[in-house]
Amino acid sequence: MKLVLTEFVTLDGVSQGPGSPTEDTSDGFTRGGWLVPFVDEAFVRRTSEWLQLADGLLFGRRTYDAFARDWPQITDPDDPFTERMNSLPKYVVSSTLDEGSWHPTTVLRTLDAVEELKKQAGNELQIQGSARLGDALLRAGLVDLVRLVIAPTVIGAGRRLFEHPGDTAGLRLASQEATPSGLLLLEYETVGAAPVAEYEGVSAFV
Fold it and tell me: Which residue, 24, 38, 151, 172, has most beta carbons within 10 Å?
């Protein structure tokens, strides 16, 4: 399976609490819910299409606990995500969780176990949120595709995506789309280490 990291971020790189002021208040964060004002039909359609590509969902412990608490409670028959989210196989990387309450769930202990899972047949293994896990997997060279939804807002506080030190990661833009509300939907393929070069004037590029 291809490992795909999907993240919602602000223009200043914050990935914490996109869906609600109470979604993630860890470390005293009070500015959640920043994505919701920009959710529109185009966003719902595209993210629903992305979810249809998943053969499994991969989480860190914090995001898993929040999703396992909230998604089974959503019963709106018109919600395009609910049935898929609740029925797909779930995998959670945790050294402390013994078993999951959101069925079907498999607990993985190490990143090596994620690498083994990728070898199974299938389309996409999708990381939903779980920015710390996604960062670790990106640095380990296990992420194949990064999907970013960038909200046109700067909130100035909160946990940022890809903020931990480590090896570089090079990305190649594979697709881009802007929704009517101003969200940018970007897909990047990973290409190994980030390239660097020294600027020697415009003549080198024309």
Answer: 151
What distance lies between CA 58 and its chain's CA centroid?
Answer: 10
Pick the CATH number of 2-193 from 3.40.50.1000, 3.40.430.10, 3.40.50.300, 2.40.30.170: 3.40.430.10
Q: Is the pTM of this model over 0.85?
A: yes
- Kindly calculate the radius of gyration of the chain based on its CA atoms and give it in whole angstroms: 18
Write the pLDDT tens digit of every residue in 6-27: 999 999 999 999 999 988 898 9
Cα 85 to chain centroid distance, Å, stands at 14
| CB burial of residue 137 (10 Å; 0-12, 13-18, 19+) | buried
Check: CB of residue 172 under 8 Å from CB of residue 33. Answer: no
Provide the residue ranges of all domains of the chain, joining segments of one domain with +.
2-193
